Amino acid sequence: MPTTIREIFAAAIKSLLRGKSFIAALLSFWISPNVFKTAGSESISNGTTTTTTTSSTSSSTTAARRSVDDFLKEVEALFLGPIEDPSLREFSSKLKVQFRDGLLNNPACMLPSYNHQLPSRSEHGQYLALDVGGSTLRVALVELLGKEAQGSGASRIVRQDSFRIDRDVKDLEGMAFFDWAAQKVVSTVAEALDARNTPEDPLLMGLAWSFPIEQTSLKGGKLQSMGKGFRASNGLLGQDLGGIIKSACRSRGLAVELAAIVNDSTAALLSEAYLNSSTRFSLILGTGVNIAVHLPVATVGRDKFGDRPSSWFDKATHVIVNTELGMFGKGILPATRWDKALNAAHPKPDFQPLEHFVSGCYLGEVCRLVLIEAIASTGVLGGVVPPSLLLPYSLDTETISLIEGDNSPSLEPSLALFKLRHPSPSEPVKADILFIRRLASSISRRSSAIVAACLFALWQFKNEAEAEFGNISGSSNTTVTAAAVAAKEEERSLDDHVVAFNGSVIEQYPQYLDNLQSYINHLFSTTTTTTSSSSSSFSSAEGIKSSGSISLVGAKESSLLGAAVALACLEEGKAN
Q: Annotated region Disordered: where (predicted)?
């Protein structure tokens, strides 16, 4: 029998003795020739790795082909090298070009909302807000207290009820789902209603809607397929969402008028802008990623606005733009072989390239792909791939975040977690967890650097666009409205721009927020705003700022508060 065949069967027999099925034993061997951890030790500390492997020519045990240290050095070079100077600045400049092109030409991204003016803090009163997400329906009465209140106390949720959207609710078809939602709205606001709530004087509602919609006005839009297992759109496709909700609530004896619809990124920007007048961006970074940015209307291709009335353009100097950030980055992202493998196996390869590099849906999967190769080539985890890790997306981002955040001397919490979620005949040891933590750190740091480059590119683009907007507003061929002059002066006065953020990754992943702010600060400290004609159509504009800053501020309960602010702005006559 050839030596290689003898080795395969010897390895398989030993695996069988450790509890594996014959097929699983063979599979593990083919995945990793180094099937067994023998008398050896690995220590990983502060970037220094020592690997000792005992082997014998008479044994079927195969020594690891690479040292752990060598593998980690390659991983860190591939993930962290492209985010060092000057590569990160160059990447940001390339992103800015893609953002400009997206604003002018791409109908799938850089989408202008109907929200064209930010709150002034003169808005005050109580407002009904509804947040419909993938797993939860939330109904709230939100109070805006205006300029008299200080800081975060300027807005508060007077009452909020949350209702879980379980499988039975998702299975409700058509109006049945909206009837269920209307019942929950009525139960929340019944005590707050008075005799004025009539069809002639309906209760105005702001809605944060986390599903596709073809928005036709600030308060209306055509319902699209909702996805995420929902059947509510069945029989209602193309119908006006405002009319659907109005009808459902009326059947429950509640007269409402849907007056404002916002998505999560717009809601986050509006909610923080009510508290902090320097807010011009929002960042959503959880399972997915998105950024909204407040830009001059002139930067957006006219066709992207659809059939809006001329009165909208008469009032609008700026507009909140939903970037659909995940769609950017094709051809310029620093893809490793593991990124390429993820993309090739994805149902929609290249559809959202940047999202694959930064969002919570994919950070764990990238780590899984790296780890599987490491098991085969270095012998970590005893050279045995835990069966669960053979399944795509089985190593989730929560797991690697908990491992990266484990600072206990023994790493026992991480060891217990990994054993529970990914049991294996070869149990992990402390050195294995240290190895995984190094992988996770490289992957999460790259994510934070790429997001920083996105924010910096958008800041530069906005800065250049505002300078051009100022020149246009002041030209002899343009009618200078009071709103345009006020907007111009307000933007010029901003030295610091606030980014309102929320999402599980940026809020909960250890050190992610600090790393993101650090990369942003570094880009500002090492880059001046100098652009060539090839990188921006606004490069020749006068008045471009050469310095500034970006501050990241958490936007708590932003969906509900943002929906209420959008509604309040409407009542103040600031939006259509």
A: 42-63
